[in-house]
Design goal:
By secondary structure, the chain is an alpha+beta fold. 31% of the residues lie in helices and 19% in strands. It folds into 2 domains: 157 residues, FAS1 domain, CATH 2.30.180.10; 156 residues, FAS1 domain (Roll), CATH 2.30.180. The protein is built from 16 helices and 16 strands.
Length: 435
């Protein structure tokens, strides 16, 4: 009995020793918090935060993030991705390796390199091993990351280690963005891009049910396809929470269909602006699609500025911020905004901070031959020159006088009675002696 107890104690001791020697289980890390202390990676961090990739990383661990410093980022990351027929979110997923690689691990790589799966492989859109990258050693402390199918923009050099959370997250700096391989560049350049179905984009992104239903019911979304062929479009889409937080007096849902269409057009810029362009926009006052339908220039504009690290949008009635990028592929950019953008031409803010719908009836067009209205209480100015009525004038041919109008016959009768009275006065002295 004592021997069995001793053996159990020995086994328990060995198990405790093995557990102590093993590394602790990996826990999910906050990538944004890890990148925050490095201002040189602020641009790359903003791209992550404005894309769905940030949420996809929230529940993962044992990752290697290939971060691109500000100086090595393309001026327009979205345009860079679109040139290869890729989506910016997929490009960012290609920079997330589903394996922890420290600088020491890079130095131990074989000469042929190592194929490492990326987050892009999890989307199901990468066939074979096109969702993986080949990492090879390029010196004592450097490495090269290559796509399996070589083409321009298919590799980047590892500049060094930025930081690490052991066994959870390793951040390596690379000298440029890497585009996922497997896209037919020749076909994408020769074939015009199909119009983006904004309603479907919102349905796939989730959290935009109200906006999607309003767009579909209004028919405004059909106007976007024509605008995409020009300079592109930028769409600001309120989330369902933004619609739920509308003040009770705004009466947006009770507006007529044509007025709702104006509000929806007010959420669209008639040009393609990726997030980086909005952050550094030169002219903050931007016209919208609703401006094109306005009778005067300068109406239905958005004031877009950068505030506290975010893009702020001021309508004159509400102030909203861009919360994330929903879709960004030239020539279409779709951003989620924290509030419904209500134009000051249609809504007004009262002293109690409530927002109410303003009078929307447009003024009637002024007729070219109409007289200006007279001020109330004013008297008409009398004519400065009198003229005889046309009926009393000669016809200019025979010198005869025109007949009197019916209204002048009473005047003639009055004249005859007067002459009779005068005659009676003359005869009165003659008649009195006879009486």
């Amino acid at each position: 009995m004592r021997g069995q107890i001793s053996r159990c104690l020995v086994l328990l001791a060995l198990a405790g020793l093995l557990l102590a020697l093993l590394p602790p289980p990996a826990a999910a890390v906050d990538v944004q918090a890890v990148l925050a202390p490095f201002p040189d990676l602020a641009g790359f961090a903003r791209l992550l935060a404005s894309s769905p990739v940030a949420r996809e990383l929230a529940g993962r661990s044992s990752l290697t993030l290939l971060a691109v410093p500000n100086a090595d980022l393309p001026q327009s990351p979205s345009a860079f991705a679109a040139a290869a027929g890729a989506d910016l979110a997929d490009v960012l997923r290609y920079h997330v390796l589903l394996e922890y690689l420290s600088p020491a691990d890079l130095r131990r790589l074989p000469a042929s390199g190592k194929l490492v799966t990326t987050l892009f492989q999890t989307t199901g859109r990468a066939s074979a091993d096109l969702g993986a990258v080949n990492v090879t050693a390029a010196g004592p402390s450097l490495g090269v990351v290559r796509s399996p199918a070589p083409f321009p923009g298919s590799n980047a050099t590892v500049l060094g280690s930025v930081t690490s959370v052991p066994y959870n997250l390793s951040v390596l700096a690379v000298d440029g963005l890497i585009v996922p391989s497997g896209f037919d560049l020749a076909a994408s350049e020769s074939r015009p891009a199909a119009a983006v179905n904004i309603t479907r984009v919102l349905a796939d992104a989730r959290g935009f049910n109200v906006a999607a239903s309003m767009l579909e019911a209004s028919g405004v979304v059909e106007e976007f396809e024509g605008d995409e062929r020009g300079a592109g479009i930028t769409v600001f889409v309120p989330t369902d929470d933004a619609f739920a937080s509308l003040p009770a007096g705004d009466r947006l849902q009770s507006l007529p269909a044509d007025r709702k269409a104006v509000v929806l057009r007010f959420h669209v810029l008639h040009s393609y602006y990726p997030l980086g362009s909005l952050e550094s926009i030169v002219n903050p006052l931007q016209p919208t699609l609703a401006t094109e339908y306005a009778s005067q220039a300068g109406r239905f504009t958005l004031n877009i500025t950068r505030s506290n690290g975010s893009v702020a949008i001021d309508t004159g009635v509400v102030q909203a911020t861009i919360t994330r990028t929903v879709f960004d592929q030239n020539p279409v950019a779709v951003f989620a905004v924290s509030k419904v953008l209500l134009p000051k031409e249609m809504f007004t803010k009262t002293d109690s901070s409530a927002i109410v719908a303003a009078a929307l009836a447009p003024p009637p067009p002024a007729a070219s031959n109409s007289m200006p209205p007279e001020p109330p209480g004013s008297a008409r100015t009398p004519p400065t020159k009198l003229s005889s009525p046309p009926a009393l004038r000669g016809n200019g041919t025979n010198g005869t006088t025109a007949s009197l109008p019916p209204a002048s016959s009473s005047w003639a009768k009055g004249t005859s009675v007067g002459w009779r009275c005068i005659a009676f006065l003359y005869l009165l002295p003659v008649l009195l002696p006879l009486v």
